[in-house]
Design brief:
80 residues; mainly alpha; 81% helix
Length: 80
């Protein structure tokens, strides 16, 4: 690995880590809200958000993907 590619990797990792933290902070209230609206324990909303994110990233086959807990809320609102 050359010096320039190592520098690019470090910069890319720094930007990706910051983006991951921001996405986590946005998704956290959504996960908790879906768990609260469905009557499930709040911790299960966190676990569902993490597992869902891992499954989507594993199945997507793309470098960029968008997923989130808001889709599950439509079923809860529809049944209310």
């Amino acid at each position: 690995m050359s010096f320039s590619s190592l520098h690019f990797y470090r910069q890319s990792f720094k930007n990706d880590a910051l983006a991951g933290i921001v996405v986590f902070l946005v998704a956290l209230p959504l996960c908790l809200g879906v768990a609260l609206a469905s009557g499930a324990p709040l911790f299960s909303g966190l676990i569902a958000g993490m597992v869902g994110g891992l499954i989507v990233s594993w199945l997507s086959g793309s470098q960029l993907s968008v997923s989130g807990p808001a889709a599950g809320l439509t079923v809860i609102v529809f049944n209310a």
